[in-house]
Write a structure and sequence with these properties.
single chain; alpha+beta; three-stranded mixed β-sheet; 2 helices; globular
Length: 108
């Protein structure tokens, strides 16, 4: 899986296999993502570097002119600890929202 964070969602979809199962959710509000050319990737799952072998792919996105909510400080938090183990959602996000659950950062 390439690192698509910051890339336009329309181009990302074109870069993935036509039969890929892709989920796209708004990271800022609960808007529907209708025209992907107006959106950029904020987060992705699986993470960059993981081999894609048929598993679903999930993205959170923001409008191209918006700031991705988890990176407003200008510092992108690492989603993984030194050993490659995912960090707990509480250490990354102020709350465990829908996008965090979709990406597997927290469980309901």
């Amino acid at each position: 899986m390439p690192n698509f964070v910051g890339e336009g969602m329309k181009g990302v979809r074109c870069a993935l296999s036509a039969n890929a199962s892709i989920t796209v959710k708004d990271a800022v509000q609960s808007r529907m993502v209708l025209q992907e050319s107006n959106w950029k990737v904020c987060t992705q799952g699986p993470k960059a570097g993981v081999a894609l072998i048929g598993q679903p792919v999930a993205f959170t996105v923001a409008k191209t002119e918006e700031t991705c909510p988890w990176f407003e400080s200008g510092v992108r938090p690492s989603l993984f600890e030194a050993g490659g183990r995912p960090r707990s959602a509480g250490s990354l996000l102020p709350s465990c929202g829908v996008a965090a659950v979709i990406l597997g950062w927290c469980h309901v």
